[in-house]
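User
Class, as today's exercise, I want you to study this protein, comparing sequence with structure tokens, and judge whether sequence predicts the tokens.
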Amino acid sequence: MLPSQPKSRRRGGERSRSGCKSCKARHIKCDETRPNCRRCLIKGQVCGGYSTTIGVQQVGYSSLVSQITAYAIPFRIPGSQQDRRLFHYFCVRGADDLTGHLTSDFWTRLVLQYSHDHISVRQALVALSCAHQYYTTTEDITGSASTEATVNYSRAMRSLRKYMSAGIDQQSVSTLVPLICSVIFFSFENMQGNTESALRHLDSGIAILAHQREADSTSPNNRDHEEICLLEQMLTRLDLQASMFDDARLPLLRPTLRLESEVSAYQAFESLGNAQAELIGLQSGMLRFLMINNTFKFWSEHNLPDDVKLEKQAIEVAYTEWSRKFDQLLHAQSSRVRETLQDPAITILRIHYLTFRLLLSHSFPHDPAVFSGPSKSTSHHTLNEILDLIESITRARGAGSRSVGAEAGIIPPLFLVIAKCTDHAIFKRALDLLLSMSGSREGMFNSRVIAEIAMHFASQHQTPPGPVALEWQATDVFEERVNGLTGVARNLGIVP
């Protein structure tokens, strides 16, 4: 009798657990194409999609807190082992940092999907991930990228130029690729402190979006409609950020609010995303209103043109309505009170709402008391509330931690308070909070550079401020600058 032979084992390594649900149910190998696998499409079957969880064993980490839940860690993407390592880093750290406190499908889904099939997006994301890792893990305060990040960035630029040489009007060339790359390039240049270059990428993306919107008006059945809307929301936020950074730059993507216009797209907010989208529109419209009517900045209320007074009234009504719907949304989530109160996204939205309401009250007519009123005034209470909320964010982040995000969070509101407030206690508290951020970046805003601008004038003018706010102490430097706060820092010798 022959000895029993050992059973043969299935060759080819460990079984993949990241296939679509339909292929798993039929026990066949999935090609893992996203969002729908090709095997299901070829057979004419409905693809069941992919699991929304990322297993700990898959990423090789004992714990995982990334917001990415709709895309498996892309070990099978084309590219070198180093590229895959940087994608892994992006999934477990970079995307969460770049998103900030508010969720963003752009960073946690769209860029990953398009990086799988488009080399220019993949190389751009590798460069950004490399720069992000370098910034957050070294003590280099200059912000200059590593050689590896710069090389990948140059490769991505060449790939995009080659891709677009066919022309974005051709069916084989998607508008989404240059739009996605414009956001990634904007973020990369901001990490290096190159805000002029960052703005060129942003303006390029906005121009491509305008071209796409014009094309959509004649051919409304665009299969990329959902992705275009997502990119429009992202570019609108970055456009607003750029105008906050440089108050001579009009926001390009939102019209000025008018009393007779539709000021709200939502009867009620169903999510924080709804609240964020409407608030961004209000902020953008308000900045355009302030900039366009700057001629009337110091006019008395009696002499202000009626259309300016009516438009300010319309914006005030819109903000009040936003606040009502926001409170209604939070009340609807009262079954999760503890979670709601600790959600930093809610805190960030509240900070931006309060800051812009103060800025509006400060304008038309000009009212310096809004940022320097008596200790028992409503505006004084609001300023302290803003700082309380910002302090809760910095405390949760941890002292000394270096972070670099793509979107504006707490640095712009802090700078606004520092620039306009003449109350010594509030000024000092805001400056201390900014100094505690330890060189963190939020898009175009570098906390170290902005803190040095504030300290420069504080030392020269013997701040604590008296009756004159910091912005007026530094009038000459602010008026003679080019490129917003980077120009101010350059005029002061803070940056080369």
